[in-house]
Amino acid sequence: MKGVVFTEFMELVESRMGLDMLDRIITEADLPNDGAYTSVGTYDHAELVRLVVALSNATGMDIPALVHLFGQHLFQRFSVTYPMLFQDAHTVFDFLSRIDDVIHVEVRKLYPDAELPTLPCERPAPGELVLLYSSPRGFADLAAGLIDGCIAHFKEPIRVTRTDLEKEGNLHRTRFHLVSATA
Fold it and tell me: Measured between alpha carbons, how far is 46 from 44 in angstroms, rounded to an integer?
C-alpha cells in the first residue's frame, strides 16, 4: 500500500484527535518502522490495519466507522492534492465511472508499484451507477468512505446501497449501487 495512504491517515488522526493520540496508536500498533512513512514508499497494508485497530482501542469507535471516516477524509485530500484527477469530472457519476480507466492509470504514472483495487462500473439506467469493488486487501469500508467523500465533494443527492459479496478466490468483493435523487 502506498505511503500516501499512511501519511493521510496520520494527518487525519493528528488533526482530529491530536498528536498525543497519534503517538499513542503508533506505540500500540508496534510498527516495524515506528510510524515513519513517506508518501512515495510502499508498505504492508497490515500496518494500516494495526493503526486502525489501535485507534479503535483508544477511542472506542468501531473499525468500519473509522475506516469509512478515513475514506471520506482521503477523498477530500485527494481533491486538493491531485486536482488533475478532477479536471474532466463534473458529477459523482463522471468521477466514479473514470476510476479504473482514467484515474487509476494516472495513479500508476505517479506510483508505478501501486496495488490498486479494481472498480469496474456500469450504468444500468439513467441516474444509476453500479461499482464493483474487488481487492485482496478487503477495504470496502474505505471504498465506501471514498464514495461518500465524492458525493459530498460534488454536493449531489445520491443514495448508495452496499452489498458485500462472497469472496472470489482471494478477492474481497462489494457492490455499490448509486441512485441519483434527481433522476
Answer: 5
Q: Provide Rg for the chain, Cα atoms.
A: 16
CB distance 96 to 121 below 8 Å:
yes
Residue ranges making up the domain that contains 102:
83-180
Q: Is 32 exposed, middle or buried (0-12, 13-18, 19+ CB in 10 A)?
A: exposed
Indicate the DSSP class of residue 166.
Answer: E
172 and 113, same structural domain?
Answer: yes
Q: Are residues 94 and 172 in the same domain?
A: yes
Asked whether the beta carbons of 98 and 150 are under 8 A apart, the reply is no
Alpha helices in 18-90 (DSSP H): 19-29, 45-59, 63-81
Same domain membership, residue 176 and residue 94: yes
Helix (H/G/I), strand (E/B), else coil: 88 = coil
| Amino acid letter for position 120 | P
Q: Does 141 share its domain with 94?
A: yes
Do residues 57 and 87 both lie within one domain?
no
pLDDT in tens, 63-97: 999 999 999 999 999 999 889 888 889 999 999 99
* pLDDT tens, position by position, 29-67: 999 988 999 988 889 999 999 999 999 999 999 999 999
SS3 of residue 92 by DSSP: helix
Q: Alpha-carbon distance 100 to 85, whole Å?
A: 12
